[in-house]
Write a structure and sequence with these properties.
The protein is an all-alpha fold and about 70 residues long. Helices cover about 60% and strands about 0% of the residues.
Length: about 70
């Protein structure tokens, strides 16, 4: 498990500085350090990394559905 923590840390260190300063990456760094020092759960570090990585992924917006129009009959 220590190898994966080290790999995660190396990945974060390879990112440009302006990306490392983003809130999601700062959180991932803090939790990763806590997991490496056995102060935090490794699962939390994994979740924080997934959230930080997910922010950078492109999420296309779903196509908007056309609203149905109804006639009111009296």
């Amino acid at each position: 498990m220590a190898r994966t923590l080290r790999e995660a840390a190396n990945y974060i260190l390879s990112l440009p500085g302006h990306i490392q300063k983003q809130r999601e990456w700062q959180t991932a760094i803090e939790i990763l350090i806590g997991a490496a020092e056995d102060r935090d759960f490794r699962l939390h570090a994994w979740i924080a990394m997934k959230q930080a990585l997910g922010k950078d992924a492109l999420h296309p917006e779903p196509p908007k559905k056309r609203a149905k129009s109804y006639k009111t009959i009296r």
